[in-house]
Write a structure and sequence with these properties.
The protein is of the alpha/beta class. The protein has four domains: 149 residues, Rossmann fold (3-Layer(aba) Sandwich), CATH 3.40.50; 94 residues, Ubiquitin-like (UB roll) (Roll), CATH 3.10.20; 113 residues, Fumarate Reductase Iron-sulfur Protein, Chain B, domain 2; 60 residues, Beta Barrel (OB fold (Dihydrolipoamide Acetyltransferase, E2P)). The protein is built from 16 helices and 19 strands. Helix 3 packs across helix 4, helix 12 packs across helix 15 and helix 13 packs antiparallel against helix 15. The chain starts with a helix and ends with a strand. The relative contact order is 0.14.
């Protein structure tokens, strides 16, 4: 098998646009960028892996660069992340690898792919474009390690997850895909009965408050962190406000201050993304608008990256991100194709950087849990897993195994024949398997 076939067969999730799926010799890229930048406050799996396994991270970047023909290889790390930066710098020096270390400013969302590509290369990705459009390939640290393991003959069966927040000890936990989130959180100390969890980062993650929801949620191929918070934490109320209430408040309270637009990272990169314009047009109403008028008024919504910076800087807490999502849904429902700006020009606004990480952490009420890079490495042992078969719309998932079969860890369970290959994350008996997923008991 060639490089692309190898990583697909191993189940590496590299088909999200951040890493080229089809790599022929003529598609060789100029830059390979591996991001070790912490995605959000308290979501530090990439940083922890870089600090704990720097030699393998550097080896992974070198191996991938050779496979994709990259002329330059860079590992990006946040400027305030001393442990990861020092470990990576030492590993690069020791191995004499042709890899550079780039320290990005401590801003959110410094890990946003178009922002990262521009910071490092000066190249601008067009609206709804991918790094390959400008001769770049981008991957995260965990993705790079998965690719290295695939080249060594190992399949993707586990995720490294940081468990932090109101916990007894902070962990970098290696957990089988499909294991219960509650079990992962409990590894960091007893989970209080009234605790709530954020799966992912505090900006884009999923908030779980009901015990039933916590019990039902499992580790997926993209889970990066679990944040444990007390029941009375202010973040618990975020997202609970009904959309209808938000839309009514926009009509009465938006003063068109433009902070949401000025701080938008995509607007700063020259993309057509003006949240204040969408908010103002919402005040005028969308009833009776034809598709052309609707696209003119709300078409910017398709360029929203969902980072949520606009929500944080809005002085009256109008949650522009949810308004953007509402109108993006309207555009999809109408089947409107919004034109792309293919030659963006950088705008000199705060959005070219975003919002300072320390300030964001304070605004989210998470400062007491931040600042420590001391994580213990543990491995979770699971007796039962429920593995979801994520797939692209319109594709069928072909089942390789059947209910009642005994499988070993790493055996192929299902595939769509193109991008997705799903493997057993533990050894045991398949209790249930269908197009949506598989349940395995040891």
């Amino acid at each position: 098998m060639n490089f692309v076939e190898t990583i697909r067969a191993a189940g590496v999730a590299c088909d999200n646009g951040s890493f080229p799926v089809v790599l022929e010799p003529e598609d060789a890229v100029d830059w390979l960028i591996c991001s070790a930048v912490s995605a959000e406050p308290l979501a530090e799996s990439e940083s922890c892996l870089s600090a704990m396994q720097p030699e393998r991270v550097v080896a992974a970047v070198s191996a991938i660069a050779e496979k994709v023909g990259a002329k330059k290889s860079v590992i990006a790390v946040r400027s305030d992340d001393g442990p990861a930066a020092q470990a990576l710098a030492q590993a690069i020096a020791t191995s004499h690898a042709p890899v550079e270390l780039f320290r990005t400013d401590a801003y959110y969302p410094a890990n946003d792919i178009p922002v990262l590509v521009h910071r490092i290369t000066g190249r601008l990705i067009a609206e709804r474009g991918i790094p390959a459009d400008v001769g770049c390939a981008v991957c995260g640290v965990q993705q790079a390690l998965d690719i290295l393991a695939a080249l060594e003959g190992t399949h993707v069966t586990d995720r490294y997850i940081t468990v932090t927040g109101a916990v007894k000890r902070q962990l970098l936990l290696k957990a089988p895909i499909g294991s219960r989130i509650a079990a992962c959180a409990a590894e960091a100390g007893p989970l209080p009965a009234d605790a709530c969890l954020i799966v992912g980062g505090p900006m884009r993650g999923k908030l779980l408050t009901a015990p039933s929801a916590i019990e039902a949620t499992v580790v997926s191929r993209t889970t990066e962190s679990i944040i444990v918070l007390p029941r009375d934490h202010p973040l618990r109320a975020r997202g609970k406000q009904p959309l209808e209430t938000i839309l009514r408040r926009v009509k009465s309270s938006c003063g068109n201050c433009r902070l949401c637009t000025d701080f938008c990272p995509r607007y700063g990169l020259g993309h057509s993304m003006r949240p204040n314009r969408i908010m103002q047009n919402h005040r005028r109403g969308d009833k009776g608008l034809g598709n052309d008028e609707f696209s003119e008024a709300f078409g910017d919504a398709v360029n929203c990256c969902g980072c949520g910076v606009c929500d944080v800087v809005c002085p009256v807490n109008l949650q522009p991100r949810r308004v953007n999502a509402f109108y993006r849904g309207g555009i999809v429902k109408r089947g409107i194709l919004v034109p792309r700006e293919r030659q963006p020009e950088v705008r000199q606004t705060p959005g070219i950087r975003g919002i300072e990480t320390d300030r964001l952490t304070a605004l989210l009420g998470l400062s007491e849990y931040a600042g420590s890079h001391s994580f213990d490495l543990r491995e979770l042992s699971a007796d039962e897993v429920s593995i979801a078969f994520a797939r692209k719309p319109g594709r069928n998932m072909y089942l390789i195994r059947s209910a009642g079969d005994h499988v070993e860890k790493g055996e192929l369970l299902a595939s769509d024949g193109i991008d997705f290959s799903i493997h057993a994350s533990i050894g045991g008996t398949i209790v249930k398997i269908d197009a949506s997923g598989a349940q395995i008991k040891a």
